[in-house]
Every structure is written in C-alpha cells, then in structure tokens.
Amino acid sequence: MTMTKEDIIKPENLVYKKPKLMNDKPMHYCPGCSHGVVHKLVAEVIEEMGMEDKTVGISPVGCAVFIYNYIDIDWQEAAHGRAPAVATAIKRLWPDKLVFTYQGDGDLACIGTAETIHALNRGENITIIFINNAIYGMTGGQMAPTTLVGMKTATSPYGRDVKLHGYPLKMTEIAATLEGTAYVTRQSVQTTAAIRKTKKAIRKAFENSMNGKGSNLVEVVSTCNSGWKMSPEASNKWMEEHMFPYYPLGDLKDKE
Ligand SMILES: Cc1ncc(C[n+]2csc(CCOP(=O)(O)OP(=O)(O)O)c2C)c(N)n1
Fold it and tell me: Care to name a GO molecular-function term for this sequence (predicted)?
C-alpha cells in the first residue's frame, strides 16, 4: 500500500502548523539556524494582525536575504545596511502599511550603523528585527562588531582582541537611549518559552509601528552553528553561557 502525506501527517499528531503566509519553498538555511524560527514568528504575527496585504518587509544582505522567497508578503531588497533608510521611505509614502526590516548584525551593526541609529532617532514608525549571531554568517564567519571578546572567527583566529578590534557593540542599548524609540527589547529563540516571548515582542513592536508610537527594535540573540563550528545543540548552550551575560535578555525600553 502506498502511504500518502495524509496517512502520515494526521491532524491529531500535528505539532508544527505552518503559517499560511509561509510557502513550501525549501529553505536554504543550515540545520539549527535561528533565522527560520524567527521567519515563522514574523509570518504568524502578520497573519494574526490581519496585515497580510498591508505589510512591506525590507530584506537585508546576509543569510536572510532570501526571506523574500519564504514569506508571501510585499518585499523590497535594500543594499547592505540600508534597510532602515528604505523602510523610512516606504513608511512615509504609505503610512497605512506595516513596515519592518529584518537584518543581521553585519548588516545592522557594521555597514548600516548610521542608517539604523538615525532611523531610530527620527522615530520612524517602523520595526527593526535584528538577528545578532555575533558573526558574518553568509560570507564565511568573519568577525562582526558584535563578536564577543576572545571569540574565534575566520578573521580573528586567535580570538577577538580588544586592543586590535575594540569592544563588542551593544546596538540595542544605544537604541534605548534614543528619543525616537518606543519599544526596544532583546530576546532569543532557543527554547519554547523564549520563542513565545519573542513572538509577543514582535507583536508589540508591529502594533506600535501601526499606532504611530515611534521606532521599535527587536534584537534576537541567535546562533550560527556553521560559522561557530559547533552542533546546533552546543551552539545554543554556548549562546546561553557566553552571549547572554554580555547581551542580557529582556525589555530595555517600553514608552508605555
Ligand atoms: C556593500 C557590501 N559590502 C559587503 C558585502 C558582502 N557581504 C554579504 S553578506 C555580509 C555579511 C552578513 O552578515 P550578517 O549581516 O551578520 O548576516 P548573517 O549572514 O550572519 O545572517 C557581507 C559583508 C556586500 N554584499 N555588500
């Protein structure tokens, strides 16, 4: 007897329901990558807010460049680091749209530092989703501004050295000091509880963006197991032990 998909996937056994906005294209991410989890949360929140036809995402340069292939909403690709500037234009032209950027730490905290800080400081009614995996994932694991002191990367093989490379940049702490920001938070997605909190944070940020409350930043402290050269499980443990003390989780600012 030939088994069909319906024979294997019975509704009572379904533990993972794909949001309707996420299509069936196979993802290019490495097994264990945090990007796919955050993509799902973004799609779920847009659906739950009923904003499927009114959302414009700005995709980055980096591993998540192909986010536009997986979530069926309107997208605009931006040059490396320029997503907040592009989001500014789109939100100002179409104030009734939900506009968000989705950026890695190389994109947001290095080449795009100026755009990020100024868009947040202007209080643009957008949300920036910031995936901080502490390295440049797509290009082969080079050191990023967010790389931890002592952390080995392709371009810091002896570990990040403060004398040579300076200190890891805390963009989210900077964002919290800016007058234009409404909601600034740091979350993660390595456990079910953490995933739920991140979803709530994205929802709040998206609602603020629609209610004219100002700029919103949701950092997600993430892993890059390929770049870190660890298993997905070991990466999560390493992140909890090393990343969380330097990048503590929780809300940094909530104007409400
Ligand atoms: C102007 C410009 N400079 C450099 C690059 C090369 N480049 C592509 S992706 C990337 C880094 C991406 O790292 P990150 O933003 O942390 O995202 P991740 O891949 O880790 O998700 C770089 C430097 C580019 N495409 N354009």
Answer: thiamine pyrophosphate binding
pLDDT tens for residues 2-29?
Answer: 777 777 767 776 767 889 999 999 999 9
C-beta separation of 30 from 225 below 8 A: yes
Helices (H), the chain: 5-8, 35-48, 67-70, 83-93, 105-106, 113-122, 162-165, 171-177, 192-210, 225-228, 232-238, 244-246
Show Cβ contacts of residue 117 under 8 Å, excluding neighbours closer than 6 positions: 174, 175, 178
**pTM of this prediction?**
0.95
Contacts of 128 (CB under 8 A, 6+ apart): 83, 84, 87, 100, 101, 103, 108, 116, 119, 120, 215, 216, 217, 218
Q: How far is the CA of 145 from the centre of ligand 1 (A)?
A: 12
Closest residue to atom 5 of ligand 1, CA basis: 80
Atom of ligand 1 nearest to the CA of 138: 19
Q: In one letter, which amino acid is 214?
A: G
Cβ 232 vs Cβ 140: under 8 Å: no
CATH topology classification for 28-254: Rossmann fold (3.40.50)
pLDDT at 53 over 70: yes
User: Which residue's CA is the closest to the ligand 1 atom numbered 4?
Assistant: 80
Give residue 44's pLDDT band: very low, low, confident or very high (50, 70, 90): very high
Q: What is the mean pLDDT of residues 141-164?
A: 98
Taking CA atoms, 159 is separated from 42, 104, 163, in Å, by 34, 21, 12
Q: What pLDDT does 3 receive?
A: 76
Measuring from atom 1 of ligand 1, which residue has the nearest CA? Answer: 80
pLDDT confidence of residue 16: 73
Q: Cα separation of 131 and 105, whole Å?
A: 6
